[in-house]
Structure formats: C-alpha cells, structure tokens
Amino acid sequence: MIIQDTMPATVLAVGRLMAGTAGESRRSAHLFDLHSGGSHPEFLHARCGAAMPYDHLEWIPVGSGMPCERCLGLAGSADQARLPRPSRGV
After folding, report:
1. Cβ(31)–Cβ(16) under 8 Å?
2. Tens digits of per-residue pLDDT, 27-71?
3. What is the superkingdom listed in this entry's lineage (predicted)?
4. Helices (DSSP H) in 4-86: which residue ranges?
5. Is the pTM of this model over 0.85?
6. Among 75, 90, 55, 73, CA closest to 14
C-alpha cells in the first residue's frame, strides 16, 4: 500500500540531453531536483543552473554518463551552506 504523505516533496534525479538533440560534449549527466506534482515545466533547471527542455531529457541511473562537474560540486543538500576552505598556515 502506498501512503501519499510519505512521498518526499523533492526527488533528486540524474538526466542528460537525449542523443540527437545535442552534441556529445553537451550530453553530460546533470542533477535535477524534481518536485512532486502532476505537471512539469517546459524547461528544467539543473543544480548547476543549466536550463534544459523537459522533452529532450533522458533519465539515467546514478553513476552513468559523464557527470557535470558543477552539479557534482553542488551534490550535497541544495540548502547546504558553502563553507570557505580553511587556510593552510605556513
């Protein structure tokens, strides 16, 4: 039995542009925060800020494809504060 209240508000998904919609160099795997709801916007925004047409995305398993480095850097919680690097004393 599925209990609707247990559905998370946001799901982290991995996607990239489908073959034939962009050159191979633009088909890196991006992280998307998908929000629960029946509809989807025309464009989805990856964690790195890249906007991609929903109809041109393919969803892939975690660990597949060449990862977007900017998305990887933001792979922690979307709400997580970015802390400065500690200084290395001489």
Report:
1. no
2. 999 999 988 766 778 999 999 999 999 999 999 998 889 999 999
3. Bacteria
4. 69-73
5. no
6. 75
List CB contacts of 88: < 8 A, sequence separation 6 or more: none
Distance CA 14, CA 66 (A): 11
β partners of residue 60:
none
Q: Under a CB-based contact definition with an 8 Å cutoff, are residues 62 and 48 in contact?
A: no
- 67 close to 27: Cβ distance less than 8 angstroms: no
pLDDT of amino acid 82: 47
31: β partners? 14
